[in-house]
Amino acid sequence: MGIGPRDVKRVVLTHLHMDHDAGLVHFPHSQILAAPSEIDTASGFMGMLRGYLPQRWPDWFNPIRLELDDGPFGQFAASKRLTKAGDVVAIATPGHTAGHLSVLVEDGDATLFLAGDTSYNQALMLAGKVDGVGPDTKIAAATLRAVRHLAEQQPTIYLPTHDPESAVRLATRQLVTAPVELGAAA
Q1: How confident is the model at residue 185, as a pLDDT?
Q2: CA torsion, points 15, 17, 20, 23, in degrees to nearest 10?
Q3: Which helix (H) or strand (E) holds 6?
């Protein structure tokens, strides 16, 4: 794509589990953003006891606390516009971790929903099935409902990190199929 590490001005971490922080070493010149509660939970000795691996982080790693202080965004309780145009927005998507966040990118006629581990795949999100490990399944289920609601309201391409079909959905601009699947999953 012709983009090098120095071309990346900001990196937004959805959360700080080791499968999401492993590429940090490539971005020493970028602003690294993460939710304050995620940074606090993952840091230091207590972070290690909670299963995070801060000892793996590069020596220079000092993430910027991304305060989601722009108010609600649709069904999501908190948000922060990351660009002047407002076309890139970080939103609170607690569930997999309490401080988990996702990033929405307005891209022409569709919203790209960079979901991190909001769900492991689109099918589970559509079914409203909470997957994996999380501190509160009710909060995770509410986040999945909010994702489905957004997809009902506007064309959305849902891209969770671990879904092997995310790359195909992005390349083909495959939208979350609305109301029939969403209504059945609600």
Answers
A1: 44
A2: 120
A3: none
